[in-house]
Amino acid sequence: MWDAPSQTVVWSDLTAGQVHRAQFADWSSVSFSVGEGLGAVALRTDGGLVAASGSAFSFWDAQGRRDADPVDVEMPAGGRFNDAACDPRGRLLAGTATGVADHPNGVLWSLAGRDVRLLMEGITESNGLAWSLDGQVLYYVDSGEPVIRRYAYDVESGSLGQRLQDLAVTGEMPPSPDGLVVDSQGCVWVAIWRGGDVRQYSPEGDLLLTLTTPVSRPTCPVFAGPELDQLVITTGWEELSDEQRAAEPWAGHLLITQAPVRGLEPFRFMADAR
After folding, report:
1. 134 is catalytic
2. Domain assignment present for 235
3. Does residue 218 form part of some domain?
4. Options 178, 197, 206, 242, the catalytic residue
5. What is the distance between the alpha carbons of residues 90 and 273, in angstroms, rounded to a whole number?
6. Entry pTM
7. How far apart are CA 140 and CA 14, in angstroms?
């Protein structure tokens, strides 16, 4: 995520359970540990962070200290948090993953203030979330499917409406869609896990651009920089053998490239959201 007030890029390392923050000017960074089961973090309007980790939502100040009691959830059997994003009204949507296609018991929750609401069930691996420019469409990835789902979304109430026409992404699996973001023109950028690229789609689902990366497992693109014209891509090395990791020295690193369009600042969690 891009944090404009501090001019930093914030990202999470799920395997290590850590949150990292790097200055965009020189990439000097600081880190702190959230603990096991970290799935995602989001910026707060007060400058802190909210994390989806373990079986709770936890709250941290900018220095990595807990500053509020956690909000517990009932995690599905065998589940873990996996990706989250804030909607235009400051609610945090966070989903879970089991990675078992024939037993999709993952869920998608909405955290409004300290109130948790169940939005969706029957998910294999909840992943990227983003909204159309008017907030009326939720783009959503269940990485157990080769598509980006589209749902009607009521911004005022935070309710999901009907499932709209999907955006076809990968065809046969693997590879599979992962994290995503929407740019200032309303197009969707999605990382393709095991596919090695990041793709830009129009809101209607037309493939506009394919950006090839030097890794097989890009995880999420984000727009960063003072002009929001730099594309930062997180990557992973999960499932790679030692030989494969040697062949992909950039796996597990951040990648950055000039973006052809500008992005948008991420929505932030609001403690008084309803």
Report:
1. no
2. yes
3. yes
4. 178
5. 6
6. 0.96
7. 20
